[in-house]
């Protein structure tokens, strides 16, 4: 006789997490997806990344993760019984993998124009207070980022952290605030930079601009080190920016977060280092991420 546990085991084997998300109304973000990690979005603030060829998933904005059973509860709510009922019709159905359709109102941004029109971040402003008081960044670090034009201030005191492509064009910006986390609408994630790629002998990649500035502060800005942020993505534009800016003599360092998301990105960076013929290293924060470490006073 088949037990509930037997059925759960079969559903884990036969139902693809990508199919669950498609049936739940989520859309695949083709720009930010790869064969190993497929990103799905629902609305402006919900993200799920599917790994292990459809057998696992995690939420990069939260600690939620698991198998297809946990995903069914994440998407539709309810008990294990509800999860089984929702998953039964999906057994054996392959995902369509249709990328997110860009709406007519989503157009590429005029990055350079909008950036230079944006408000300068200044000492005493809302964004400055957010970075120093809530994020624990030293004023000297913010000043250093401002000197290279990497930061601006958006509405409601939101931090803007600039992303640039290989040729130096502004492609968008990370947006962070006390109650907001996102990326500029119509923009493309490439890399947030602090340093000079041509002369760098060590390129350190983090998952956010705030983490990049935190790690730079922890390491006291050593000569020859370039700090970069992917902004939480690793699409073709980000990979291209890294390939185009990585000096042959440099070491690529994955300074990603603790957890499955950080490990996944570190693996991809190690593969990239191998393809580019450069040395690779992995650097782990003592806390969950580099900003948590600096806020905790750990150097």
UniProtKB/TrEMBL annotation:
Which InterPro entries did the record assign?
Answer: DUF3991
Q: Which Pfam families match?
A: DUF3991, Toprim_2
Q: Please name the CDD domains in this protein's record.
A: TOPRIM
* Record keywords, A-Z: Plasmid
Q: Where is the DUF3991 domain?
A: 129-196
Q: What is this protein called?
A: DUF3991 domain-containing protein
Please tell me the species this chain comes from.
Lichenicola cladoniae
């Amino acid at each position: 006789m088949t037990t509930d546990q037997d059925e759960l085991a079969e559903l884990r084997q036969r139902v693809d997490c990508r199919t669950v998300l498609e049936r739940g109304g989520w859309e695949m973000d083709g720009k930010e997806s790869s064969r190993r990690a497929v990103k799905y979005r629902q609305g402006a603030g919900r993200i799920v990344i599917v790994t292990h060829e459809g057998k696992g998933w995690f939420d990069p904005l939260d600690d939620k993760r698991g198998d297809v059973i946990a995903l069914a509860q994440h998407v539709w709510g309810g008990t294990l019984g509800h999860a089984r009922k929702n998953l039964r019709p999906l057994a054996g159905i392959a995902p369509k993998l249709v990328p997110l359709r860009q709406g007519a109102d989503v157009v590429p941004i005029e990055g350079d124009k909008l950036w230079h029109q944006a408000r300068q971040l200044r000492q005493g402003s809302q964004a400055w207070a957010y970075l120093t008081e809530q994020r624990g960044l030293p004023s000297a670090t913010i000043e250093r980022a401002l000197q290279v034009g990497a930061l601006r201030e958006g509405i409601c005191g939101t931090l803007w952290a600039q992303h640039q492509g290989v040729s130096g064009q502004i492609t968008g910006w990370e947006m962070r605030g006390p109650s907001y986390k996102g990326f500029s609408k119509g923009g493309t994630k490439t890399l947030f930079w602090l340093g000079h790629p041509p002369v760098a002998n060590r390129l350190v990649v983090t998952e956010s601009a705030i983490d990049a500035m935190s790690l730079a502060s922890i390491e006291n800005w050593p000569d020859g080190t370039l700090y970069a942020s992917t902004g939480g993505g690793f699409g073709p534009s980000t990979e291209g920016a890294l390939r185009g800016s990585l000096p042959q003599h440099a070491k690529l360092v994955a300074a990603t977060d603790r957890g499955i998301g950080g490990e996944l990105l570190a693996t991809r960076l190690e593969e990239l280092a191998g393809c580019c013929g450069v040395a690779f290293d992995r650097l782990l924060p003592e806390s969950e991420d580099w900003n948590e470490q600096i806020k905790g006073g750990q150097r």
